[in-house]
Amino acid sequence: MLHPWIVSRAPNARDFLEAAEIADWRRRKMPPEVVQAVLADARPYGEIAAACNVGYQTVAAIKARRLYAHVPFAGEVPRGSRSALSAETVRAVYLDPATTREAAQRHGVSLSRARQIRQGRIGVDITRGLTSPSAARRALDARHARERADLGAA
């Protein structure tokens, strides 16, 4: 069951609450039980923010204890990890001969993440030893250029 404070912030809140209840809940500060749920949640901040109908920065501030620091919380606050790509996805994006944009769409990653994989800034340990299609093409073009030069010199 979602807390009424979270439901009141949803775009379809009128399906669940009366207008007066929505206004009342929206005027209130985040309840301690919701703050504690945010603090205990180990998902990425964006997912927590979407689930609670608040912004990413709000979740980050709560986790850093800059907001609602007065709310008691026992234990360690898990920091949200970014969603990790599987080794298969990194390898597939790296080896895909299509353009970076097409590879990103085909494998369900963002364009910037696909660029980072292909530039060797993400997943280096996974792609080490693999020859990317663009590197293979460059090597083949260089070999063909040498062969043409040898034929022209002979």
What does this structure look like?
With 154 residues, the chain is mostly helical. The protein folds into two domains: 60 residues, no CATH class; 67 residues, no CATH class. It is 57% helix and 0% strand. Helix 4 packs across helix 5 and helix 7 packs across helix 8. The termini are far apart. The model has no long low-confidence stretch (mean pLDDT 84).
List keywords for this structure.
154 residues, mainly alpha, 57% helix, elongated
Concise overview:
The chain is mainly alpha-helical. It has helices at 4-7, 19-27, 32-40, 45-52, 56-63, 87-95, 100-107, 111-118, 124-127, 133-153. The mean pLDDT is 84.
Question: Topology, please?
Answer:
Blueprint: H1 4-7, H2 19-27, H3 32-40, H4 45-52, H5 56-63, H6 87-95, H7 100-107, H8 111-118, H9 124-127, H10 133-153
